[in-house]
Write a structure and sequence with these properties.
Blueprint (H helix, E strand, L loop, with lengths): L1 H12 L2 E2 L6 E2 L5 E3 L5 E6 L3 E2 L2 E2 L6 H14 L4 H11 L4 H7 L3
Antiparallel strand pairs: 1-2, 3-4, 5-6
Helix pairs in contact: 2-3
Protein name: Transcriptional regulator
Pfam families: Zn_ribbon_2
InterPro entries: Zn_ribbon_dom_put (IPR025868)
Length: 102
């Protein structure tokens, strides 16, 4: 039981990450919305609104270009930010779905 409680506490302390841009979402105001107005558990408010992506034609490479400046602003080198995003974004729900075979 102690292990279960520790695991629950660890997951509660970890932020959710947007499954489109990878932004940490630490409060409900940062969550996007579903069509019914409820919070989206997967996407941030910058990427997702009323059940749809704000930029439906966005590509993963475009998302990387869009996110790099924010990471640089936080102190990361541009090449490191680009490399990190290039490795991480393909693992996120939005981009996995986009690259899934038909």
């Amino acid at each position: 039981m102690t292990q279960l409680n520790e695991t629950a506490n660890e997951s509660a302390a970890q932020p959710h990450f947007c499954q489109s841009c990878s932004m940490p979402m630490t409060g409900t105001a940062q969550y996007g919305t579903e069509q019914d107005g409820s919070s989206s558990p997967d996407y941030c408010s910058y990427c997702y609104e009323e059940g749809s992506f704000r930029e439906p034609e966005q590509t993963m490479e475009g998302m990387i270009r869009q996110c790099v400046p924010y990471m640089v602003e936080e102190g990361m080198e541009e090449s490191k930010a680009r490399s990190l995003l290039s490795q991480h974004l393909p693992q996120l729900k939005r981009w996995k779905a986009a690259s899934a075979p038909l």
